């Protein structure tokens, strides 16, 4: 939440002037200040957004995705999305011609970025893309020089980057959302009462639908169970609060956990590590 006096800043995507990508692989760097967002947009190519530092929240019609430092998210072509950060973040965007990477289909996917891909992104971000804007579009060939000014070595590295992105593992830092009339009041209430618990039976009485109907609606509309969705919500909020340097004990209590070990166990089950190690890494 913004404190009094803080304003939200909005930015347009810097490649919005292009209908098609200038080159098969195009790198962009962006530093976002605290309380800022890249407005909702789409493009005719695929994209990997990598968080160099800070915490990103990527929103789409399907839900919200958290991207902590060192992780990334795959955005397929023509998928509307926006990017926000509460505490500021540095990101790198790998824009990829549609069809070069087919492994992730048409789904927005949070990815566990490994050390090799991090190094490749860091190196490729230094290539002179900006200096060659407007020149002839490059192709992957064996010429000694490339039309847009990139060397053969640089072009090969971009090819390796594409290959390695395709091998990345998926992450579960995803919170599905829905505007379904039955689910909407449940999702909205849980967001504002994250430390409270209402059972399906309680919601059944309140909404006038059976608990089995509500449970089935979670599975059909969100793809996960009611209890799993609540855990995902708590995980998202925990990661956000960790990025704000709140203590693990304070976060556990604020999320409604009766004990610190119970919170740590949930967090480790979803991320593979403890809250303390997660934020340090």
Q: Averaged pLDDT, please?
A: 86
Trace the largest sheet across and list its strands: 1-3-8-5-6-12
Q: Helix count, per DSSP?
A: 9
Classify the helix fraction into a percent range.
25-40%
CA distance, first residue to last residue: 25 Å
- Number of domain modules: 2
Low-confidence stretches: 1-5, 132-147
Query: What would you give as the CATH superfamily of the largest domain?
Result: Regulatory protein AraC
- The CATH topology of the largest domain turns out to be Jelly Rolls
CATH uppermost class of the largest domain: Mainly Beta
Order of helices and strands: EEEEEEEEEEHHEEHHHHHHH
- Structural class per helix/strand content? alpha+beta
* CATH architecture label of the largest domain: Sandwich
What fraction strand?
Answer: 15-25%
Let me know the largest β-sheet: 6 strands, mixed
Rg to the nearest angstrom? Answer: 21 Å
Give the tally of β-strands. 12
Written account of the structure:
The protein has 281 residues and is an alpha+beta fold. It has two domains: 9-170, Regulatory protein AraC (Jelly Rolls); 177-280, Homeodomain-like (Arc Repressor Mutant, subunit A, Orthogonal Bundle). The chain is built from nine helices and twelve strands. The strands form two sheets. Strands 1-3-8-5-6-12 form a six-stranded mixed beta sheet, with helices on one face. Strands 2-9-4-7-10-11 form a six-stranded antiparallel beta sheet. Strand 5 and strand 6 form a beta hairpin. Helix 7 (248-254) crosses helix 8 (260-271). It is globular, with a radius of gyration of 21 Å. Mean pLDDT is 86; it is low at 1-5 and 132-147.
């Amino acid at each position: 939440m913004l404190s009094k006096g803080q304003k939200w800043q909005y930015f347009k995507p810097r490649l919005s002037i292009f209908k098609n990508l200038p080159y098969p692989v195009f790198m962009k760097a962006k530093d976002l200040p605290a309380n800022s967002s890249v407005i909702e947009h789409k493009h005719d190519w695929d994209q990997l957004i990598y968080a160099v530092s800070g915490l990103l929240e990527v929103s789409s019609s399907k839900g919200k995705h958290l991207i902590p430092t060192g992780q990334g998210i795959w955005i397929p072509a023509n998928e509307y999305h926006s990017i926000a950060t509460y505490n500021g973040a540095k990101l790198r965007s790998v824009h990829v011609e549609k069809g070069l990477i087919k492994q992730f289909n048409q789904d927005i996917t949070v990815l566990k970025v490994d050390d090799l891909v991090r190094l490749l992104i860091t190196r490729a971000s230094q290539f002179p893309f900006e200096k060659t804007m407007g020149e002839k579009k490059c192709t992957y060939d064996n010429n000694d020089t490339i039309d847009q000014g990139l060397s053969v070595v640089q072009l090969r590295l971009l090819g390796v980057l594409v290959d390695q992105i395709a091998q990345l593992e998926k992450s579960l830092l995803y919170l599905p959302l829905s505007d379904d009339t039955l689910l909407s009041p449940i999702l909205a209430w849980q967001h504002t009462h994250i430390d409270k618990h209402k059972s399906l039976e309680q919601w059944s009485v309140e909404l006038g639908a059976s608990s089995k109907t509500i449970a089935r609606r979670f599975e059909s509309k969100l793809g996960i169970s009611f209890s799993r969705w609540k855990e995902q919500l708590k995980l998202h909020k925990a990661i956000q609060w960790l990025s704000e340097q709140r203590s693990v004990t304070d976060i556990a209590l604020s999320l409604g956990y009766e004990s610190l070990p119970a919170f740590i166990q949930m967090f480790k089950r979803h991320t593979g590590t403890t809250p303390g190690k997660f934020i340090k890494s």
